[in-house]
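Ops channel
N.P.: pipeline sanity check, posting one input/output pair.
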């Protein structure tokens, strides 16, 4: 899928999740309204729907990760749009194994610059980078596909060339 199509899909996901959070209307109705222009592009529409559902399904877990990384801020004082962008980013990092972490982070920085405050891009970048490093250190980042395997390595593993064995459960 072309980058601009995914960007548009992410923008529509942000708008949908924002409308859902503010209105508390049923998500199906909000999606029908705000994703309507994506319906002609099945791939973008399916991506947007999946991202919305994953964000909502894992919201408590995702917010726990955010709270750990922004413990010096009052969570409720973080701009609503920034919180939604962080949820989206963490969701893509954890539940979309075919999307490179750098793509997720860069795309959400650009969306933040368009839809949020002047400093939101840096804020989103900092939090998502920290969470990405946490996922790498805990050996829970699972990216697959051509060119994505090394995305699972921590900064230290890339520097030294020594890779920790996967954690077993």
């Amino acid at each position: 899928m072309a980058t601009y199509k995914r960007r548009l899909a992410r923008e529509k996901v942000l708008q949908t999740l924002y409308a859902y959070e503010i209105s508390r209307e049923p998500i199906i109705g909000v999606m029908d309204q705000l994703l309507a222009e994506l319906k002609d592009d099945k791939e973008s529409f399916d991506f947007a729907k999946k991202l919305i559902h994953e964000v909502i399904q894992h919201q408590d877990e995702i917010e726990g990760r955010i709270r750990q990384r922004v413990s010096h801020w009052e969570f409720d004082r973080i701009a609503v749009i920034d919180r939604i962008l962080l949820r989206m980013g963490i969701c893509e990092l954890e539940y979309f194994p075919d999307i490179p972490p750098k793509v997720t982070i860069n795309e959400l920085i650009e969306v933040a610059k368009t839809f949020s405050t002047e400093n939101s891009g840096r804020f989103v970048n900092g939090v998502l980078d920290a969470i990405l490093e946490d996922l790498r250190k805990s050996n829970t980042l699972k990216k697959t596909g051509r060119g994505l395997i090394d995305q699972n390595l921590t900064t230290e593993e890339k520097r030294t060339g020594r890779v920790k064995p996967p954690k077993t459960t």
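N.P.: looks fine end to end. The two ends are 35 Å apart (CA to CA).
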